[in-house]
Amino acid sequence: MSLETQANDSSFDTLWDELVWRGLIHVSTDADELKKLFQGPPITYYCGFDPTAPSLHLGNLVQLLLLRRIQLAGHNPLGLVGGSTGLVGDPRPTAERTLNTKETVNEWVGYLSSQISKFLSFDGANAARMVNNLDWTAPMSAIDFLRDVGKYYRVGTMLKKDAVSARLNSEAGISYTEFSYQILQGMDFLELYRNYDCVLQTGGSDQWGNLTSGTDLIHRAEGKSVHAIGTPLITNSDGTKFGKSEGNAVWLDASMTSPYAFYQFWLNTDDADVIDRIKVFTFLTRAEIDELAQQVADEPFKRAAQRRLALEVTSLVHGEEATQAAIAAAAALFGQGELSELDAATLETALRELPHTTTPANTPVAQLLVDTELSQSLGAARRSIAEGGVYLNNEKITAEDELLENHVLPSGMAVLRRGKKTLAGIFVE
Hints:
Blueprint: H1 15-21, E1 27-28, H2 31-39, E2 44-49, H3 58-72, E3 76-81, H4 85-88, H5 102-117, E4 129-132, H6 134-137, H7 142-148, H8 155-160, H9 162-168, H10 176-179, H11 181-196, E5 198-204, H12 208-222, E6 227-231, E7 244-245, E8 248-249, H13 259-267, H14 271-281, H15 286-298, H16 304-318, H17 320-333, H18 344-352, E9 356-359, H19 365-371, H20 378-386, E10 390-392, E11 395-396, E12 413-418, E13 422-428
Parallel strand pairs: 2-3, 2-5, 3-4, 5-6, 9-13
Antiparallel strand pairs: 1-6, 7-8, 10-11, 10-12, 12-13
């Protein structure tokens, strides 16, 4: 779905009602006031993204889509990239962050700004704007920072913030650098309030202490009330952290998480989680989502909701062409399409997401099964071949001494399959 075709669901009386139904409100300042704000004249609001990596990830996507939903209601978004806060890093629960160089952070600012720009409209009466907090922190001296901003903060209050108290109780403790992060984020909100009349900040609920740092600062410095929304942390039904697999984030950058892997991530969503994911990560209407929920209940084996989720989110992040290529690759790998019709780059990307090996062309297929751990031994590999359960490029292997060289695609690759679903990639030396 393109920016031009995105829309909020008209079946809801207000934007606030839709955000609540989609599960996007975990904590907020005055809910009644926020509901009124959303129904009134356009407001300016923002979310900040720190360049602590060269790409945004799925957790950030929640915020990007929240920014977009509010923009679709007629309000004015600011996308903030933390050129200064990225140099410091917000406190993690257990240990200090590794500080990146200024050159690296500046490079990542560019990457993140480009990514954010894809999810907001920069045209029309409520066009989005990008800002960088380095623009107002870099010219400020330490004395000015302490006098003009630091004087409004009370150490006792700062110590009570969850992120700070967790670190104080850990062996690592917390440095003054990370302790001061909440002041920097609060100063961002104050700066945007003064220069853009910004009255709302959004973020993850784990950032609530930093979000309220800004609302408190504006109240003290300006005598005005502003607002914050904290979205829930997305977790799977089994309690595991969403978007993580063996410690690896699912990135929005195609060079860090390929469109094929991205599509497969969503396709593998558990039945218990899929409808909640559709509510948060797609612009499907309540009626469409209710229909998919019924399909999950009645015919879960068809995985219609998972396929729709994967299609919608992958298209949103990577575009329709890359999404269709990922779908074609998945079908071809499992014998439902022509491998020869896939472009080499798409096929290679898909195969590198699987167990894979690089080998000479004269390697026996039985050895390939062992090398890719599809079989535990040569004896087991030969039995699988004899039983008719081994395929190279979707062609059944019938001879126990069959060689790879007879089945290599023009791209120098091959897809090895045992049974219906166990795959591996082969790259010819």
